[in-house]
Design goal:
By secondary structure, the chain is mainly beta. Helix content is 8%, strand content 33%. The chain has helices at residues 9-19, 257-263, 275-278, and strands spanning 3-4, 32-33, 41-46, 50-59, 62-65, 79-82, 92-101, 106-109, 116-119, 123-127, 148-153, 176-183, 196-200, 216-221, 224-234, 247-252. The strands form three sheets. Strands 11-12-13-16-15-14 form a six-stranded antiparallel beta barrel. Strands 3-4-5-10-7-6 form a six-stranded antiparallel β-barrel.
Length: 280
């Protein structure tokens, strides 16, 4: 995984102060309030500071999120709300039993440019009890370019610099969504093709922003949703959110088929799993 998008200095300072680490990459700007209930959607939140990352339910006692979200996750403290369009109420509220960070995850900062490079941006969180919500299905192959996909999150809805009408720390209570189109890896700078998926929205002022990290890039398959990716970062190196080309990068869930299946049981797939198709 390549250079992490630089966010506004105010966001960096605030989130780093809260969690003592690099901020969650990528909130939804230019989207709309959720048009349906997503039983698999989860918010990770700290009792003192509130929502900081998204996640997706993949089994009754497991959610998947971005690796760079895990420094803010603590067993016995972090809470997970699942299956509600509100990040404050509804759905199932449970705690964290354990966190499994992908063994290949790394985060380094270029001393000259300040760019952050992250690899294998994925983690599993075991809940302290099973929940009854329906998990999202896992893919058996990588999303093809040209396919439609939907991003979900509770991140910032306006880009920095923050103003009186959109103050820093002001997150939407209700879940937001934004439709994307999957594009070829060659059209997306700083992408690691075998492990990531790139998608874009037509409007360059729309896209993901701070606190959308860890949430899903979901694709509809009939009556069900399939988890194509885990939100990692925006593709543009311009500072702030909504200032680039409308493209972003997600960790490719299909590429981690074997690793996920090793830990989480009772998983649902769009069709019979194929290790060859999963590319790992």
């Amino acid at each position: 995984m390549r250079a992490h998008t630089a966010l506004a200095a105010a966001v960096l300072a605030t989130v780093t102060a809260v969690f003592g680490t690099a901020p969650p990459a990528a909130a939804i700007i230019g989207g709309r309030e959720a048009t349906e209930k997503y039983s698999f959607m989860a918010t990770l939140h700290d009792p003192e500071h509130g929502h900081f990352c998204g996640a997706s339910l993949i089994a009754p006692q497991w959610v998947v999120t971005a690796g760079h979200c895990t420094p803010g996750v603590t067993a016995g403290r972090t809470m997970v709300r699942i299956g509600s369009t509100s990040r404050l109420e509804g759905g199932s509220l449970t705690g964290v039993a354990s966190v499994i960070l992908h063994p290949g995850y790394t985060k380094t900062r270029d001393p000259e440019t300040g760019d952050v490079r992250i690899t294998h941006d994925m983690a599993l969180i075991k809940l302290n009890r099973p929940v009854t919500q329906r998990p999202i299905r896992l893919p058996t192959r990588t999303a093809e370019p040209g396919g439609k996909a939907r991003v979900l999150g509770w991140g910032y809805t306006c880009p920095p610099p923050f103003t009186e009408n959109c103050p820093i720390g002001s997150l939407p209570t209700m879940l937001r969504e934004l439709d994307h189109i999957v594009i070829p890896d060659s059209h997306c700078a700083r992408i690691q093709g075998r492990e990531e998926v790139c998608a874009e929205v037509p409007h360059p002022k729309a896209g993901v922003c701070t606190h959308d990290s860890g949430g899903p890039l979901a694709r509809r398959a009939g009556r069900h949703w399939t988890l194509a990716g885990v939100t990692s970062r925006t593709e543009s190196m311009l500072p702030g959110c909504g200032t680039g080309n409308g493209r972003a990068i997600w960790t490719d869930v299909a590429a981690y088929h074997t690793w996920i299946s090793h830990y989480a049981s009772a998983l649902e797939y769009g069709s019979r799993p194929s290790l060859a198709a999963a590319r790992q």
